[in-house]
Amino acid sequence: MLSEDEGLQTVTRSIVAVITDKGQLKSNASAPFAKLSLDIERIEKEVRNQIKHIFKQWRDAGYTADAELTVREERIVIPVKSEHKRRVNGFVKDVSATGQVLFVEPVESLELNNRLKELYADRRRERERILLKVTDALRPYKGVVELAMSSLVEMDVLAARGAYAAAIGAQRPRLIGDAVLSLKNAVNPLLKTTNVVPLDLQLTHENRFLVISGPNAGGKSVALKTAFLLQYMVQHGLFIPASPDSECGVFNGMMMDCGDGQSMEAGLSTFSAHLKHLKAMTDAAKPGILLGVDEIGDGTDPRFGGPIARVILDQLLKKGASGIITTHFSSVKEWAGQTPGVQNAGMAYDLEHLQPLYRMVPGKPGSSFALQLLKKTGFSDSIIHQIEGLGGEESRKTEHLLVELEQQQAKLQQLLTENEQKERHLQLLLEEYHSLKQKIESRRREMLEQAKIKAGRMLDEANKQIEMTIRVIREHKADKVKTQEVRGKLHRFREQIKTESVQEEKPVKPPAPVKWLPGMPVKSLQNGAVGEVLEVKKDRLKVALGLVQVWLPLNEVEPAEKQMGGKQFVSAKGFNWVERNATFNTQLDLRGEREEDALKKVAVWLDEAYALGQFNLKVIHGRGDGILRKSLRLYLKTVNYVRSYHSDREGQGGDGNTIIELI
Fold first, then answer.
1. Do 285 and 217 form a contact (C-beta atoms < 8 A)?
2. Per-residue DSSP letter, 477
3. How confident is the model over 230-261, as pLDDT tens digits?
4. N or C: which end of the chain has fewer CB within 10 A?
C-alpha cells in the first residue's frame, strides 16, 4: 500500500491534471473536450457577429428596446419591443416581466444556434465522463482525501480564529481548572462604538453569585451579556477582548434568560416564559453550571416578583451553581448583602449630569435613580413627591441611602484620581531632580579633574623651567649676564602663570550701599550661607544661620533675594586646587576657641573640604562641659551637604572628637 504522503501526492496530481485553481475543468482535460471547446468558441463568435449585424438593422428600424444582446435558453437573442413583434422574422424565446419586451432569436441564426446547442450537450457529457474517470481513480484514496479535508478545515478554523482575534484586539486569558471567572478590562466585541467602558467582573468560590443593580440603560444587561459572551468564546477556544491577566475557568454548562420570551404560538406571556426559563435553570443547577438572568422576577406584581427572585436564587445557590443576576428589587439587593456567597454590584451614575457612567462598582448595590430620572424627564416636583410618598417610608430611606452612597463613591473616586495624578507628577519631578543632581555632580568631578590636569601641566612646566635655569647657570659657571638672562625668563614665566590665573577669575562687583534692617535676608560672601538679620550695628550684623547666631562684618555680606531653605556654598576664586588639596588638613582643632569663633572656622573649613571633594573629616573640640560639642552638632544639622556625624572611637578620643562624613 502507498503511504499517506504518496497517496496525497497521487490525489493532488490527478486533480491538478484536470481542474484549474478556480475549480473549473481545464479546457485541455481531454482531447475531445478541447476540440468541443474550440468548436463552441468558433461558432459562438460566428453567431454573435451574425446577430450583431441583424441587431444593428433592427435597431436602425426602431424595432429594438433600449437594451443589449442577451442569452436565453443558451441562445443569443435580441430584445424587441412588443408592438414590432410582427415586423421581425424570428422565434420568441422569452418575454420581460412587463410584457413590453420580447427576446427574439432571428431566423438567420437558427441553424448555428441549433449546432451550438448540440455542442453544449456533447461538452457536458464529456465533462461528466472526465470527472467520473478522475473520481474512479481517486476512490482508493478516500481516507487520504477525508484526512486532508479535515486538516484543511481545522487550519481554516484556526486561521479564522486568529484573524478574528486580531480584528477585535483579543488576547489569551489565563485558563484555570476551577469553574470561576475573573474579567479585567473586558469589552463586548459586538459593541462598535469607540468609547466603550471596560468591565471588571469576578465570580469566585467565595462569591459564586453576582447581583448587579442600577438605573435603567445604565449597563447592567450589557455587563451580563459581555461576561457570558466572553466565557462562551473561551470555552470554544477563542481569544477574548480583555487583559491577558484575566482568568477564565471551564463551566460544564451555561444557561441565560435575557430578553422577551413571549410566544403566541406556545401561549407564553413575557412572565410565563420567564418562569419557564427559571424552572429549567432550577432543574439543571449544580456545581460547574453558569447561570444568567436579566431582570429576575420582572413582569409581574412587584409584591411577588421580589420574593420569587429571592427564593429561586436561594435554591440556585444551595445547589452549587454560579450566576450573574440583574435586578431593580430592593429586597433582592438586601438578600445579596446578607447572604454568604453572594456579592452586590452597582452601575455607577453621574448625579450631577444625571447620566450613566457604564462602570460597574463591586461590593455595593446600585440605586435605580427613578426619582432623579423622573426629574430629568421633566415631571413636576409635586408629582415626584406624590410618587415618593406612595413608595413607602422604608423604600424612600433605602433609595436615599443608595443615592448618598453613590455621591460619596463619586467623591472618593475623584479624590483617588487627583491623588494618582499628583503622585505621577511628583514622580516625574523626583526623576528630574535625580537626573539634574547626577549631571551637576558629574560636571563638578569633570571640572575638578580638568583643574588637576591643568595644574599638573603647569607644575611640570615650572619644574622644567627651574631645572633648565639651574643647568644654564651651572654650565656658564654662574656668569652674571647669563644668570640674569635665565632668571628674567623664569620671572616672565611666573608672571605668565599669574596672568592666566587672574584671567580665569571673574571680576567681583563692589557691594552697593544697603540699609540693613532686622528681618532682612542676608547672604555671606565667604561661604554663600543664607540667613536672617537679627541686629544691626555700625560695621557688622548679627545673623541667624540656622540654629547658629554669628556677627559678620558688612563687607562680608550682601542682601539675599529669598531664603533658600538650606545653605548654598560657592567655591573660592583664584584658588590653587592641586596645591590646596595636597596640603588640606582633614582635622580641625578647636580646643580653647570661643564658641562664635570656632563655628566660623568650622563653616570655612567645611566649605573648603566640600569644594575639594573631601568626604571624611574630624573636629577635635575636647570634652570639657560639652558646650562646644553641642554647638558644633547643632550647626552641622543645618549644613545640607553633611551626610552624618558621630563621636570618635573611645581609644581615639571618644566624644572629645566629632567624625563628619560629607556627601
1. no
2. T
3. 999 999 999 999 999 999 999 999 999 987 65
4. N
State the Cα–Cα distance between residues 364 and 210, nearest whole angstrom.
11
Per residue in 123-172, pLDDT (tens digit) is 999 999 999 999 998 898 888 888 888 999 999 999 999 999 999 999 99
pLDDT the model gives residue 505: 45
How far apart CA 368 and CA 296 sit, in angstroms, is 15
- CA distances for 8 relative to 4, 135, 189, angstroms: 6, 14, 40
Q: What is the DSSP letter of 650?
A: G
How many angstroms separate the CA atoms of 249 and 423, rounded? 36
Average model confidence (pLDDT) across the chain: 81
Between CA 251 and CA 255, with CA 252 as vertex, the angle to 5 degrees is: 80
What cell does 170 get? Answer: 483579543
Whether residue 530 contacts residue 567, with contact meaning beta carbons closer than 8 Å, is answered with yes
Q: Is 429 exposed, middle or buried (0-12, 13-18, 19+ CB in 10 A)?
A: exposed
pTM attached to this predicted model:
0.50
Query: Which strand ranges, in their side-by-side order, compose the sheet holding 355-362?
Result: 253-257, 289-293, 322-327, 209-213, 342-350, 355-362
Place of cell 452612597: 405
Task: Give me the torsion for CA of 463, 465, 467, 470, rounded to 10°.
Answer: -140
Amino acid (1-letter code) at residue 21: D
Nearest to 242 by CA among 181, 183, 189: 183
By CB atoms closer than 10 A (0-12, 13-18, 19+), residue 157 is: exposed
> What is the Cα gyration radius of the chain?
50
DSSP 388-423: HHHT-HHHHHHHHHHHHHHHHHHHHHHHHHHHHHHH
Burial 173-206 (b: 16+ CB within 10 A, else e): beeeeebbbbbbebbbbeeeeeebbbbbbbbeee
pLDDT of residue 577: 52
Q: Are 659 and 648 in contact (CB under 8 A)?
A: yes
Q: Which residue has cell 550661607? A: 529
Torsion of CA 136, 138, 143, 146, to 10 degrees: -110
Residue with cell 443608595: 402
Residue 461: its pLDDT value, please? Answer: 75
CA distances from 600 to 549, 584, 632, 651, 662 (A): 10, 17, 10, 29, 18
Specify whether the CB–CB gap between 620 and 591 falls below 8 A.
Answer: yes
Residue 399 has pLDDT above 70, yes or no: no
| Element at 294 (helix H, strand E) | none
β-strand 181-186 against 101-106: which pairing, if any? unpaired
Q: What is the rounded distance in angstroms from the CA atom of residue 372 to the CA atom of residue 215?
A: 10
Query: What is the CA angle 299-303-305, rounded to 5?
Result: 40
